[in-house]
Amino acid sequence: MSAPTFVNDLRGIRRVVTGHNAEGKAVFVGDEEFRMESLNGSTTFGLKVLYETEKTPASNDEPFQDPMFNDVADITNKEGTNVRVLDFAPNQKWESGKGFMHRTESIDYAIVVKGEVTCYLDSGEKKTLKVGDLIVQRGTMHEWVNESSEWCRAIAIVVAAHPAKVGDKVLGREGYEPEWVATKGHVRA
Which pLDDT score is estimated for 187? Predict the structure, then answer.
């Protein structure tokens, strides 16, 4: 069963994939437009996983089999990468202990492509990111809140990593259960 479509004023996401023909020449093997999906019925947060690899380094061998029509079980996968689009509704307020403060076992490269979003850390620090800004999440506890008056969209490249360690303390996945963020099937636009 597909996740509910997430409704906002932003367009769907077009994903174009390249590969090779039988002669080894570059060709386009995928061109799909995807709609955002609601996370657990949320009206304030939408997401879409656009591509996923099961291991690193990934295989570019043919034939192309689109991984995006498989289930996605967690924010990260244990061996590979994924690219996800995140939409944040405007006019949200941060309240300590009431949002989605979480940590993943990954390194995440997130770039804001529309609007702005504030990243809160468990230390109490915060930074507001605007269009063109990049944040590198290195296994830290964080939460995203869009306090502006317009929708925000960010694109994140999520790369599997070992859990962060501080001294002898291992800082693994925290703040969510994988089934909360799993997606079943992908909705074509």
Answer: 45
